């Protein structure tokens, strides 16, 4: 423990996450909410992350959280090139050495096995570290990284082995990680949601149109094409699909909607600022996440917080959130998605009951509980 503001009972934490809003996705947002909670806790945190611009930036949350944003010369806020990952790793390692001359850290918390877990490993003789598994940092999670996993797997196993704790954000992701390292001890701390940001509207909208929303990066792993194909099977019904997000599949998916003659029924919203996303949910009837792999989706949690019934694929942490509030369908199966939509289309009462149940589940998963779980882990391991 170190002294902060004249008090001697503060723990000082070094946190590493190469992405922080507006960069990145679920792991980025989770980091932001955890830090907001930590600002009200009995600890001081320094986060080393990346700048969305080409200049070094700092940000503070309250009096005890400082965010250092290293200039990486990023080209796309949603995607990382190998050059950018290497740039962050090199600059973070150098900057951490500077921070450690000024501060004595009780523990290091690394989001993602690589690059952040690997960076923490380099300082293991100076401070203990824990690793948060988020998704693509676990071998086998993302087919796009199959070749990289071959080379990274030995590094990842070593990072996990020397960590004081390895924490997954879902039971499904933990089970996947154990395929890489069966003897590894892995705990689970789920993602959370700030339910105060989301106010569900259970009143029936005055519309005969069924509005379906999907919030996800437009990449192959999210399986959006199967959702669009499902809407194609239901083209003679009064359905509107709203897709929020950007990605390298955007033009391909737009072309698919044209080929299926449903372009008038599919609205590509592109990037929506996070503080406006609740309005999208509020005017929707069903949330669908057709991912081919997933950890613990923040978008799914947010949709549940808004009281929406959900249709999800049986992957990663999604099935852990379904308990009377939605339908689970097989991955990569547009027919199953279409059948699930059709089953809820003319049943507003079931949709409402599922939505109420979604909200109940979300209310149990606040970020306060998540941050408290991490804080207990820090105290046990430091």
Explain this structure.
- With 382 residues, the protein is an alpha/beta fold.
- 39% of the residues lie in helices and 21% in strands.
- The chain has helices at residues 26-38, 82-102, 113-122, 146-162, 171-180, 224-233, 250-259, 277-282, 298-305, 334-345, 348-363, 367-381; strands spanning 2-4, 7-16, 43-51, 57-61, 65-71, 107-111, 129-133, 165-168, 187-188, 210-215, 239-244, 266-270, 286-289, 310-313, 326-329.
- The strands form two sheets. Strands 1, 2, 3, 4, 5, 6, 7, 8 and 9 form a nine-stranded mixed sheet that branches.
- Strand 4 (57-61) and strand 5 form a beta hairpin.
- Helix 1 crosses helix 12.
- It is globular, with a radius of gyration of 21 Å.
- 45% of the residues are buried.
- Residues 1-8 have low confidence and may be disordered.
Please give a quick description of this structure:
With 382 residues, the protein is an alpha/beta fold. The chain is built from twelve helices and 15 strands. The strands form two sheets. Strands 1, 2, 3, 4, 5, 6, 7, 8 and 9 form a nine-stranded mixed β-sheet that branches. A six-stranded parallel β-sheet has the order 12-11-10-13-14-15, with helices on both faces.
Percentage of residues in helical conformation? 25-40%
Roughly what is the average pLDDT, rounded to an integer?
91
Globular, elongated, flat, extended or rod-shaped: what is the shape?
globular
Give the biggest beta sheet: 9 strands, mixed
Number of β-strand runs:
15
Q: SSE order in H/E notation?
A: EEHEEEHEHEHEHEEHEHEHEHEEHHH
Low-confidence segments, ≥5 residues, pLDDT <50?
1-8
Strand content: 15-25%
Helix-strand category: alpha/beta
Number of helices: 12
């Amino acid at each position: 423990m170190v002294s902060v503001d004249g008090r001697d009972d503060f723990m000082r934490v070094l946190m590493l996450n190469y992405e922080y809003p507006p960069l990145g996705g679920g792991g980025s947002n989770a980091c932001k909410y955890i830090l907001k909670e930590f600002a009200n806790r009995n600890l001081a945190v320094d986060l080393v992350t990346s700048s969305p611009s080409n200049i070094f930036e700092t940000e503070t949350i309250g009096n005890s959280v400082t965010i250092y944003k290293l200039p990486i010369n990023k080209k796309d806020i949603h995607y990382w090139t190998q050059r950018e990952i290497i740039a962050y790793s090199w600059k973070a390692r150098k900057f951490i050495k500077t921070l450690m001359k000024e501060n004595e850290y009780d523990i290091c918390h690394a989001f993602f096995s690589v690059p952040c877990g690997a960076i923490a490993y380099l300082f293991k003789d100076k401070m203990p570290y824990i690793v948060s598994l988020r998704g693509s940092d676990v071998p086998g999670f993302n087919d796009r990284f199959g070749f990289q996993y071959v080379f990274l797997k030995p590094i990842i196993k070593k990072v996990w082995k020397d960590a004081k704790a390895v924490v997954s954000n879902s039971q499904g992701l933990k089970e996947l990680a154990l395929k890489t390292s069966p003897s590894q001890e892995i705990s689970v701390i789920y993602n959370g949601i700030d339910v105060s940001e989301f106010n569900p509207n259970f009143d029936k909208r005055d519309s005969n149109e069924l509005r379906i929303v999907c919030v996800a990066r437009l990449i192959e792993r999210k399986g959006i094409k199967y959702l669009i194909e499902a809407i194609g099977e239901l083209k003679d019904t009064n359905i509107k699909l709203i897709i929020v997000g950007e990605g390298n599949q955007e033009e391909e998916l737009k072309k698919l909607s044209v080929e299926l003659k449903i372009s008038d029924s599919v609205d590509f919203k592109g990037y929506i600022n996070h503080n406006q996303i609740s309005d999208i949910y509020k005017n929707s009837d069903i949330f669908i996440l057709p991912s081919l792999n997933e950890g613990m989706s923040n978008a799914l949690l947010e949709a549940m917080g808004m009281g929406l019934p959900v249709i999800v694929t049986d992957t990663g942490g999604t099935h852990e959130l379904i308990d009377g509030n939605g339908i689970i369908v097989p991955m990569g199966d547009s027919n199953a998605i279409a059948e699930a939509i059709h089953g809820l289309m003319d049943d507003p009462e079931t949709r409402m009951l599922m939505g109420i149940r979604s909200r109940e589940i979300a209310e149990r998963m606040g970020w306060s509980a998540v941050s408290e779980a991490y804080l207990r882990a820090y105290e046990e391991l430091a």
